[in-house]
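Weekly structure sync - notes
Attendees: PM, LS, DV (DV joined late)
Agenda: review two folding runs queued last week.

Item 1: First target. Sequence and structure tokens pasted below for the record.
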Amino acid sequence: MKKSFSVLIVLIMLLSLLSACADASVREYEPTPTVTPRPEGVHDFKTAYESMDPDTVVFTIGKDKIYWDELFYWINSSMLRIESQFGAMPLDDMLTEDESFAEFIMEDVKTVIVQFYGLNKELEKLGIGLSDESKAQFEEIKKANMERYCGGQVSDEEFFNALSELLISERVYKYVSETSLLHQDGFAALYGPGGEKFSADKTLAFAEERGYMRAMHVLFSFENPDGSQKIDAEKLNLKKEAEALVSELRKIGAKDKLTEEFKKRVLERGEDPGAAHLIDGYYFTEGKMVPAFEEAVKMAEMYKVTDPVETEFGLHVILRLPLEADGVLD
């Protein structure tokens, strides 16, 4: 799989252009491009998009050409996903101790694009194409998008002109929408619509081979509601509270009772907003969590509560859990 080094140059050019100045909107793949309001004065997406012709080939994957308009779409998507968790931020802000927001986006976008095109090639080899049902679904999605962005049914030309004002080209809209449906068709053909053809044992073996881990955590955040950092005395009190929780949880012997009690504490005391939506724990692979958190999970025994683990986000009390097939698929 060949990639031109120019992708790095192009990404750096874009990221340097996304500096403060204008009200802007970004798109996220849901599976069709949509528009989400963004705070003013953070990034100037229009200037960045117009810095290059949309038809410019920025790099290739094998014989497939990746154009500027598509690369721009994926960068927007990556930025929105991260900023939905951490808030809008300058690109030179540090997302972790070792990686800036811009550096993370560069790696994330390359990974997503390579995976997208790689999966398409594998489905092509297997003779799996877009089904008639998915083609019809695409037309229904397009009609719904016309209602949303144009206020009613309009011609394709009018619709795509409206999308172009949102910095989404016709090519990108069709590719992202149809590829999403193709991947659904591929999954259904290989594993069944609900994954029923893929046994739990195979799912777990797949996850274990790739180093998946699962953990719950109660976060004692170092950040105040107004965004300021707690002072040292407050952090010391948090440490005492976290240690007391560890001591209490370690007195619970039964695994199922410990798990349920830990879930309760995540909801009642934890300060990670994402944990409440992933109440059965985070599933992740190496490099996806901050290093101290990841290392603590690696070293932990199953159903054992860790000592408080400090990261830039706060103190984490962690419970490592075995993988479950449904969680891996989700």
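Item 2: Second target, run right after the first with the same settings.
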Amino acid sequence: MTARSAARRHRDEVGEVLAVHADRPGPFVVVGVVAVWLLFSGLTLLNPAESPVLMLAPTAVFAVLCALVLVYISGERLIVCERGLVLGSFAPGLRPSVIRYEQIVPGSLVPVTGARRYAAETGTGGYPQSTVRRSAWTRQGVHFVGPSPKEARRHRALLAPLQDPPPRSIDGRWVWFAGTGATPPAQVTALIARAAGAAGAVELARATAAAPERALTGRPADASAHLPGLR
């Protein structure tokens, strides 16, 4: 199932899909995974088994494992819909979060570049978080303050709550971040502003349309200026 078709499950809540942005790993990551497969496959050939089947079996297993790794690390999406956002991993067995525009704090949604410095600037340490959808290869994205991760889930989760961070906004809400892949974040926020305005979230639409792009520096002192609402 594609991310677009999976997002249509929430059509009654957030409307039709307007755009899908994939935050996939770059070629260096893919080459690295392939190199690991070649390395382990080569090690198995140093001590070949008696039969060709037993000799090739480990290579096939490593290929499947590496393919699964690529599938899961390539599953991040930010989907802009008519009345809200669907974001998170669409890899098999995982469910995204759903956030309506009225749940986003007006003035907090901004386009961000320099996302590789996000952990240093926010002091989050780079640990996986359910509300910060950022990987090592994420270069740009959108930041906003919104609902708790529990409110944004549309399913019962057993392990996902372990990655839920505490509220980090100045008003006790949750800070969110989602990568936009190759699409300039200002282009994404412009679309969100138009969709929010059409959906009746006028204050959010106006503030988002006027929000300039923020380039992260990695300095904690700049965090509150670059990421509105962060305490």
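Discussion on item 2: The mean pLDDT is 93.
Action: LS to circulate a short write-up before next sync.
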